[in-house]
Known about the structure:
The complex is a heterodimer. Chain A is mostly helical. Chain A has helices spanning about 10-35, 40-65, 70-95. Chain A contains three helices and no strands. In chain A, helix 1 runs antiparallel to helix 2 and helix 1 runs parallel beside helix 3. The termini of chain A are far apart. In chain B, strands 4-3-2-1-5-6-7-8 form an eight-stranded antiparallel sheet, covered by helices on one side.
Amino acid sequence: xxxxxxxxxxxxxxxxxxxxxxxxxxxxxxxxxxxxxxxxxxxxxxxxxxxxxxxxxxxxxxxxxxxxxxxxxxxxxxxxxxxxxxxxxxxxxxxxxxx
Amino acid sequence: xxxxxxxxxxxxxxxxxxxxxxxxxxxxxxxxxxxxxxxxxxxxxxxxxxxxxxxxxxxxxxxxxxxxxxxxxxxxxxxxxxxxxxxxxxxxxxxxxxxxxxxxxxxxxxxxxxxxxxxxxxxxxxxxxxxxxxxxxxxxxxxxxxxxxxxxxxxxxxxxxxxxxxxxxxxxxxxxxxxxxxxxxxxxxxxxxxxxxxxxxxxxxxxxxxxxxxxxxxxxxxxxxxxxxxxxxxxxxxxxxxxxxxxxxxxxxxxxxxxxxxxxxxxxxxxxxxxxxxxxxxxxxxxxxxxxxxxxxxxxxxxxxxxxxxxxxxxxxxxxxxxxxxxxxxxxxxxxxxxxxxxxxxxxxxxxxxxxxxxxxxxxxxxxxxxxxxxxxxxxxxxxxxxxxxxxxxxxxxxxxxxxxxxxxxxxxxxxxxxxxxxxxxxxxxxxxxxxxxxxxxxxxxxxxxxxxxxxxxxxxxxxxxxxxxxxxxxxxxxxxxxxxxxxxxxxxxxxxxxxxxxxxxxxxxxxxxxxxxx
Lengths: 99, 519
């Protein structure tokens, strides 16, 4: 079976898992952060952010399948999730934009 | 080994596009047909009288009266009544819909009524049992035979994969503008790629819209954390907030009987407000209960899911609320995205454009699969190999790409040929479609590639061109009669299937000719 791709089977599987777990996580935490930052009432911001979150996830997927190092992928996605998630939690507890 | 961005995206484009391409093909086929679901519904119920489509103020009021009498008699304790007079593309006949839970129904079982009434005398019109075009439409998001909760979620996931395929396709397309109209016939693989690109690029706004909006439908299933995150993930609070975002007044059943307010005066007030021509349907929530509510809705007349609604108290007849527009910017955005996907607002011209764009989408998927298959063949030929998996996929490709259209034609054949009084007729029309599809996927396993393609294209050609013939043989609503009567729903359907059949026959004949030239 001709294999043109530069990746081994495990590197590909690793990337799919990277999409499903840290990638999906980052898309969600970024989306939630966006919903705190948008200048609208909470529910409206949540809806807008939800609509955008698919574009965020798509961008993450494209990056995962271009980035060379699987290790870097996981590190950056998890770090990004921690940052955006942490910031969101902060904004939640100190109160986001006025409803 | 470092790769350019384009090379990575090419790999991703092939993977995301190919793995589920057969399901994508099915979704685009049934979704495209779904834009004409009401018209196909009509064609599949030839017993229903053709209705003149000029509704008047009197006919609407009469329709409502007739509907209310019938509903009071047959579903007085329903959760909700829908009354749809014949005033729109979607309503050729007076439709009444009522759902009564088991606890309050006369039969002791949950009752779901969906009937067409004769506007003159309130008689129930009984056309043949059929899933109609609506069954095809529903298949594009819940597939068939499998639990719908699961399949809906799966199709939502597929939308995300399709979006990746689209995005990566755009990225890897070299010379996007320079090659916009490139089509080089008779160049083998190149031609297939040109066709793939041309069909995708020429309908690109549609493809992007349909895929992205497809994802937005499943926000609740696939991005629930973002949808409720900033409210603290409290499910009850989130639900309440989204309900309020809808901006519709609450109506609650109180289990205390009360006389339903007469609908005529309510309707007259509503029609004065939204305009005569804009009225589409009435919904009565909790009829004959203290908590009754009457909702008058206008048509979809803008690219949005939103439409004006006027809410009345169902006992006093008092106007409660008039929703003139989407309550907020984000809701309006959401409504617009969904509305563009559903295209309920589309007139006949735009509807055809949607349909043809959907067919182009089918073409993109089919040519993509074929192009991949031909490229693989070249690689294998060079290595002197022909793995079983590859040959199997090639055969199954034929069964899906050519076989699905044959199966859909079989669905229409079954509608005309299955006995009208047959029990489970509706199910068997759909079974016919899938049985034929199964046979179409098995047939190529017994034939060579070239023969299988040719035979299935001939089969598709005959299957479609004979639909109007079978229709003429089994009903009185044949093509010439329809044209004479100005019935463009029936005539349009017959002409479209004829054209489809001719296209397949042409393709089959061309393949035949190529074979003769090569021999």
